[in-house]
Prior knowledge:
alpha+beta; globular
Amino acid sequence: MNTRKVLLVIAISMVSAITGVYTYSLFFKSNPQIVTIAEPQKAVAHFASYSGGQQSNLPDLTVAAQHSVHAVVHVKTMSRGTDYYSGNPLYEFFFGPRGMQQPQPVMGSGSGVIITTDGYIVTNNHVIDNAQEIEVVLNDKRSFSAKLVGTDPATDIALLKIDEEKLPYLTYGDSDDLKVGEWVLAVGNPFNLTSTVTAGIVSAKARSINILANRNQPMGIESFIQTDAAVNPGNSGGALVNQKGQLVGINTAIASRTGSFSGYSFAVPVSIAKKVVADLMEFGEVQRGILGVQISDVNKEVVEKFDLDRIEGIFVIAVTEGGGAEAAGIKAGDVIMSVEGEVINSVPELQERISRRRPGDKVNLLIKRDGEKKPFVVTLRNIRGTTSLIKSDDLPRSLGAEIQEVSNEDKRRLQIRAGVQVVKLYNGKLKQAGIKEGYIVTKANRVPVTSVEDFKKVVSGVDEGLFLTGIYPNGRVAYYGINLED
């Protein structure tokens, strides 16, 4: 056996041995922090050098990694556990809960991405949800207290701000240009291992896994980038970057039966994230344009049930009364073929494209009806059914709520004279107090509330505490004491 053959046999044995050791480590050792890919790849590249001098086809990701690790931060949170409830809200409001033990602090950890040199940081909403304190640790170990600028549970995006200048940051890439099979990097802090970089390929685009719906977000927008880059707990809110080191996604979730990486991870595309960030910076909340349709993918069953000619586009199940689609003339049974000339064939694709728009924006749709294609122009509306932007100063942002006057039907059914209803909750004082969406405030600090203006007037006149009397749509009366002090 000549020297080349001997070296070939040794190299093959090395690859098998290394692969076997790491496979065993992955399944039978308790420590989940074991590298399972990097060493075998080195062995394969080493083997190639002995078998004819051919170089590995893997891209050089070192520049992208070195650039991105300095712009990805460690986000640490502290929240409090649930207080003991004695059952007498009036007593508790004035004298404090009886028999209450001080709740223990709950610590959390995730990642974030610096997107401006003056300290704006994007992360996941679930990383900072209900946090009373947020700390940001940079790659150089400096630590800052972070302010929460705003959140968007519908996309699981949140925006933080730290007081610092001349910070390293990532520039936006184009997630639309990503191609399946393209190499990307995931950067974050899994298991509190700071500045960790993993590599993988884009496995799919416009993927929906219903994770936001499971978090009670019926308007959740899911059009995830799916990759096989290793992402674990602590990576949430970290960066997904392309080979140029540009930000193309915010790592959000993994598909796992164990809680640790099992082969696939998911990121919010930057096409969605950057619009959410821009809205939070400018308005304090997201200005979401709504099409006003109930939709589904077109599959074999839909084609057969509604006598369609082929599987293509997005099927309109129903249109919202008074919505933009109805006003434009779109009807149930229509098939949406394209948005602004871009062909769409899945619900996530349509959600992603509409999510980039604001109320009042006009969107060109190509609709197929009775086998014929026809253009429509839809003016998007906000969640209140109007085309105007929602002002963040409608209520103090710290309350974290949207309210509207209670309907006449609910007033008759619940036998109340007036009130305002909490129609949307975000992170804020009301949510922290335990209030749920649907709650109807009838009195605020013992003052009857007959309109939104009444409620705003009471809130604006107090600095420390707010006592709410109200009722839920199921008839349950509830009282809440809210501490307005920071």
